[in-house]
Every structure is written in C-alpha cells, then in structure tokens.
Amino acid sequence: MDKFRLFSSESVTEGHPDKVCDAIADAILDEALAGDPTSRVACEVCCSTGMVLVMGEFTTEQYVDIPKVVRRVVKEIGYNDSSLGFDYHNCAVLTYINEQSPDISMGVSDAMESKESTDPADRIGAGDQGMMFGYACNETPSLMPLPIDLAHRLSHRLTEVRKQGIIGYLRPDGKSQVTVAYENDKPVYVDTVVISAQHNADVELETLRADIIKHVILHAVPAELICDKTKFLINPTGRFVIGGPHGDSGLTGRKIIVDTYGGMCPHGGGAFSGKDPTKVDRSASYYARYVCKNIVAAGLADKAQLQVAYAIGKALPVSVCVDTFGTGKVSDEQLAEIISKHFDFRPYSIIKNLGLRAPIYSVSTNYGHFGKESLPWEKTDKADELRQYIR
Asked: What sign has the CA pseudo-torsion 10, 14, 19, 23?
C-alpha cells in the first residue's frame, strides 16, 4: 500500500523583523572578522518601531562602528522611508557590549585535551555544551529537502521582484510556505503555496494576487510540481500594509527552522547569526551538514541525518550519531566508523577545514544557511573518497 503524507516548510524575506536582526548581527560579525580573524563575537540584536538594540560579548582588536553597520544593513534591506515606520535615517541605535566572559574564554582557549596533547587541534574547546544536527537528502540538486528549498526560492523571488521593480509596490517584509505531497517518501507534487507579501496601501488585492502568481510562484516553482490539486493562498487576510519592525518586533535567532531544514530533521536549539566559529552552535552545525552532504553526494545513502554533541571546554565531541533512515548502502554503525575516519569534529579542525575565520557570514543570513553552493560547508570534496565504501 502506498504511503502518502504532506509536509510543509516556511521561509521569510530579508525584510522580516527577525531577519533584519540576523542580518545586522552577521554584518557586525563580518566586520570584526575582517580586521581580526580571531575575534570572539556573540552578537544579539532586537528591533522595533524606530529602534535597534545591539548587545552581546565581543573580544576583538577590530574597531566596529556599530551604528554605521546597522544603518547600512537596514538601508540595503529596503527600509529607506519613514512611511514604513522604520528606516535607516532615523532609527535609534542602542548598544550594550561587554567582553567575553573569562570563564567561557578559558574553555575555548585551553581545551581539556590540550593539557595532555601537543596537537594544535586539541587547543580549542567547544564554546558551549549542546547538540547540533546536520541533514542532506537527494530530493533536490542542492541535496536539501524540497519543501524548504521551494520556500526559500519563493521568499528570495519576493525580494528580487521588489528590488528590481518588477512588482514595485511590494514592501520588504514577506513570508512563504510550501506544502509538498509525498508518496512512498518521494515528493510528487506541490499541494499548497502560501505567500504573505507586504505591499503599499493603494494596491488592489486581486492585482497583487495575479502579480504574485505570475512573477513569483510560477517563476520559482517548477511547472512539473504544479497540478490541478495545487492551491495558491496569497495574503489570506486580505491586507498586509504594516510590516517589518513597525508591525512586529524582531530578535536574533528566532528563525532557526527557516535557517536549517524547514523542520525535516530535529534541531538542537542553538541559533547561528552573530556567533563566531568557536561557537559550536554554528560551526558544528555547518560541519554536520558538510558530512551529511558528502555522504549523500557519494551515494552512501539517499538521506542522512547526523547529531553531534559537545561539552564546554572539550575539543572532542561527546557523541556522534548517524541515521540514514534505512536508505544507507552500508549500516549506520559502519557509516559511523567511516565518518570518524574521514571527518574531524574538533572545533579547531572544523574552523581550519572550512575556513570559518573569514567574513563570510552575511552571505549565509537569508534564505537558509544551507544549500548555497558558494558556502564552504556545501562543498562535496570528500564524496570521491567515500565512494570506496559502496558495495
């Protein structure tokens, strides 16, 4: 008997208030890393009508002009007019910055293993305890789940048509959601597309709906996935004029499912934006994706999920667990051994192997931290050597 299910994922545009905060946090991090690659940054941002608050712990030799960075990011997003209730000219920028706690710094700079080892990779300990997840599957060329891949395409297209003037009456805030129908674990069609797009007050709803279908949905969703069962729900409340930080407060790290796999796999709870790579919340999540993507790219499994867990101040993870959901060409136990042989999960090695001390994080902020081929954790350079294990 065929197994049928529906699965949904959402995405948001860069003008969503939470993403405004994420973008500011990552831009500040990039500014610090550009001048001092060893910067320790834990940057949190919140915003509301006419206000941005930047807070956190910084240890860096680089001077960061935080108000200047904030206003640049807000302007680039498109909040450039006071009629939007939030704009880069007039928003207040408040800062509350301290140095990194010496208790945390000690655990990062002097790992437990370094007391008995001269290996440089044993010097850096995890910046916190916690568990992180990686995932990859062969549903899309980027090896991302189809629902979140399509949701990101839609939200990115919403921004594209706004900034290019194709739909000139759109404003920066917006959301997308895609429901995909699966049969026997294979995606077969798109069941529902939901778009909520902020717009000028004088636009008729029917005009907006027609433009969104033509220029956004039909452009972003492949035609072969749309059928007579597919439903389009566009601005379901009928009006979305007040948006962005004027319509709702924003906070860094509040879109962690959007940032990862759209709910297709578990989440350890740690956010990414504003954190330097000594924070394993970020770097180990990226590395877990790198491992899973190489496993799937090598053909060792159709989909792979990896959990890795750390203790603060310890370089080696306390556990690594892989699950291929019965799709593996070798057993999960054998795959765990393969992973331990070919991948090094110590923070020093992750940072070095993926080049994470560079100012690359603003590229990752919007439309998902995974699936963008330009990012170093998306490379599949280990796939060839992993193929030797396929029987």
From this structure: positive
DSSP 3-state assignment of 43?
Answer: strand
The pLDDT tens digits of the residues spanning 131-162 come to: 999 999 999 999 999 999 999 999 999 999 99
* Cα 288 to Cα 255: distance, rounded to the nearest angstrom: 19
* Contact assessment for residue 200 and residue 163, using Cβ atoms and an 8 Å cutoff: no
Amino acid making up residue 201 = A
235-246 residue pLDDT tens? 999 889 999 999
* In the chain, alpha helices (H): 17-35, 66-77, 102-109, 146-163, 205-212, 218-220, 244-247, 256-259, 280-297, 332-342, 347-354, 361-364, 383-386
- What pLDDT does 103 receive? 54
- Helix, strand or coil, per DSSP, at residue 190: strand
Q: How far is C-alpha 48 from the geometric centre of its chain's CA atoms? A: 22
Rounded to whole angstroms, the Cα distance separating 38 from 62 reads 10
Q: What is the pLDDT of residues 332-360, one digit of tens each?
A: 999 999 999 999 999 999 999 999 999 99
